[in-house]
Design goal:
Number of helices: 5
Largest sheet: none
Helix content: over 70%
Number of strands: 0
Strand content: under 5%
Distance between the termini: 38 Å
Structural class: mainly alpha
Shape: globular
Length: about 90
């Protein structure tokens, strides 16, 4: 990874954590969790997942524990990533 990629990675993580902290005040995923998410998913995917998590958090009036927040966000990111992958010929049949 070249230094500009590392800088972009850190900047993306910082923007996402600031967005999260501005809405979900009871729990912040660890730096390791953010690194995992951003190594598996694009920053755009994680932005969508975090925004949907914040929406759910608000709808449930904060009734989501730390484990549920991480699992929910991971599930959303996995679904978004899967939805963005082109279908193979075999999967389409």
């Amino acid at each position: 990874m070249c230094s500009s990629n590392i800088q972009d990675f850190v900047a993306d993580r910082q923007r996402l954590t600031e967005l999260w902290a501005g809405s979900i005040t009871s729990y912040m995923p660890s730096e390791a969790q953010w690194n995992i998410w951003l190594s598996l998913h694009s920053p755009e995917t994680m932005l969508k997942a975090v925004l949907k998590t914040i929406k759910r958090w608000t709808k449930l009036d904060g009734a989501m524990n730390a484990d549920y927040l991480v699992r929910y966000t991971s599930s959303l990111a996995n679904k978004i990533t899967g939805d963005n992958k082109p279908q193979t010929q075999e999967a389409a049949q």
